[in-house]
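Hi R.,

As promised, here are both runs. First protein below:
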Amino acid sequence: MAFDTPGHDTAAFGTKGPDQNLEPLTIPRRHVGPKDVAIDITYCGVCHTDIHFGHDDWGMTTYPLVPGHEIVGRVTSVGDEVTAHKIGDLVGVGCLVDSCRACPSCAKGDEQYCQNGATQTYGSPDPHLGGTTHGGYSASIVVDEHFVLRVPESLDTKAVAPLLCAGITTYSPLRHWNVKPGQKVGVIGLGGLGHMGVKFAAAMGAEVTMITRSAGKGEDAKALGAHRVLLSSDADAMAAEAGSFDFLLDTIPVGHDINPYLQLLKTDGAMAIVGAIDAIEPVQGFNLIFGRRTVGGSLIGGLPETQEMLDFCAKHDIVCDIEMIGMQDVNEAWKRVQAADVKYRFVIDMASLKGDA
């Protein structure tokens, strides 16, 4: 396979091994092709997936790794055949930068489920330059226009970045399971994903309950839009709510026992798992059969749905709750994410990488 000649080098931050800190790197970006969009990155969110990849927790990382798949910036150049974007536009790039665009999933706009393997923003084989793709902890990026999203100018730009992963990860299942006004929705876990689930479900008109083990998170949840708080550690409270929820969004990021939560669902109720990709404790068939309940999973969203989510956010004035950092603070930010010490997402100001801060 022939690869493109790199178009330019760009400043970045990345890691050269699973036990090494992130440090300054220089990486290549490709020439702007006929359907490409070049973007000057202004903000990039920090996702827990960045850390998993950086530490090779899933045994699939190729180094050096430049993470970052929550990218917001301005268009600096477009190819001759680009129609959707122009120089100066505010745009975003999420977790995907390519897919086969021919399989049934891609044809439906579900590129995240590409049956031939989507190209991730970082850590995937790079079909243009060889090696692996590099993400948004960098000054610039070149992406096919199909995978570049329009960011509404009305939104707080810096707080948009995490919408491109945490936002769409929670919006997509709420839309797929058709959450409606008046339905009773439980969001399990209050973190980077959970806080967005609360905001979206409330904006969709649902009666939202934050389900958490920590009583101290109750007021925060209500400030985000939750109507009620249910302590999963309170057996009596859980029993009183049995059979009352239409939908549960499970954002817990590690393997856990979902059986107590399944008992909260009504007949024909559904639970969507979006946080844990490792093993879930054995599910008791009783909790599914008696109530015709469903457990499913959901992975980010396709490009059409992600654009829909951004437009929904503009309509309802929804962004992520964030803490801004400079690139020099990213190693400490990774430690704080692992300690759950952030409300609720870190966003890197790329001016700090470019020397503009």
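And here is the second one, sequence first, then its structure tokens:
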Amino acid sequence: MKPTIEITKDGSSTLVHPKYQAHYHSIYGAIEESNHVYINAGLLYFLSSEKRQDILQSCSILELGFGSGLNAFNTLLKTEALPVNINYLGIETDPVPIDVIKKLNYPELLQANEKQELFDNMHTVSWEDVHQITSSFSLEKRQLDIFKLEADNQFDLVYFDAFGPGAQPELWTEPIFKIMYRALKKGGVLITYCSQGAARRAMISVGFTVSRLPGPPNKRHILRAVKE
């Protein structure tokens, strides 16, 4: 079975996973959530640090999971005018079929119709290989069980966008955040839409410094964790 498409309150598409019956993005606004959580509270927060502004030439991002490609595409758009190269790794166990992807309206609503081919390319390029999508944005997609990820001090930023604890509780526990902590460089940031207390405590238990931040529409809080 394929994911089905729904339109969220800001007019942008989301998908519903056929097995978990879980939405890939907030039903109150997929693009609004992506901008609020992953771009503003994650990417731009990390890039705006005074310590990094003059020395950072590249930013390595890990996303769990790649899904619709919205966060990756939004990141590409938001950074193309910035003096930074993005190295993006998306982890996804259930790749979305390209015929479903082609029905998503992200390029149009992000006012990037001319980038439709780039969005499609992000989904059609081969898995397990690194691809230079633009001169400043490289993408690798891995069809991988995240518990098998082997990475030490490799990433600056983690977009933790797994399905919620109700659908995949194992992805919000101490073992997974140990993997994330190890994968991040010192000063690295993990950002997620979830603010569940158990997830926050699991992050703290493995060494993260965790902040509760205001959430997007209809979401009181989100979490940002830093590897000090």
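A quick note on the second one: The domain at 4-226 is CATH 3.40.50.150 (Rossmann fold). Let me know what you think.

Best,
J.
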